[in-house]
Amino acid sequence: MVIDPIARQTDGESVRIARDVLSAGAEEARVRLLDRPQEMSRAMAGIQSGRVVVVGDDRALLRAVRALHHRGELATHPLGFVPVGPPGSVTVASALGLPSDAVQASRTVLNGPTRPLDLLVDDAGGVVLGALGIPAVPRQRTTARRSWWRPSVAPEQWLRVEADGRVLADLDRPVREVSVSPADGLAAVVVRHSELDPAVTARAESVTVSGQSFQYRADTVTYGPAHCRTWRVRPGALHLSLPTG
């Protein structure tokens, strides 16, 4: 059990509850309290076997997934996650269907099935659990799984978008919005040139965006500026405990 320090600072009571429930349900549970969020990679490196349970917000989960991916150990370490933090900091967890209550989330870790989830991995070492969007403007509210990103203001950009080599948008016409999300073993790509034009869609194993310097929002984090980035789908790479149904 790896407990993020930000979770202890923002909601120590939920952390205590999660720790008690998980410790009571797993006799050999070991607890690692991180002093800094950056220690997540070191904590992942010290785990030899068994399930990893992360207690914290979305960014703590993403740091854990990224660390295991870089070590090539996603397949050998199933993950459990107890989201702790303000509503805006656990939107990824909510979109994945995880309970926001510490007791229910902890019981999901103990009793829920472990299910494979697709990931997007980019050529700069980044990992995306849910969706990425260009431009990097987060949506304020959502209830649907894997659709928590959508721009409220979308300036036009000159971008080339390719899906498995097929050109969906080129530099001869500005692009208003690009979104990519893993779906059933492939990347679902949506490109919009304007509000009036129909969206250009595709499903592909890899997606490349290049051209004008751009920022993108992956899950809850903004990255960039970048001039070119390629994302590839890793089907079923993450094994996460989720509620039944």
UniProtKB/TrEMBL annotation:
Keywords assigned by UniProt, alphabetized: Kinase, Transferase
Gene3D superfamilies: Probable inorganic polyphosphate/atp-NAD kinase, domain 1
Record GO terms (molecular function): kinase activity
Protein name as it appears in the record: Diacylglycerol kinase
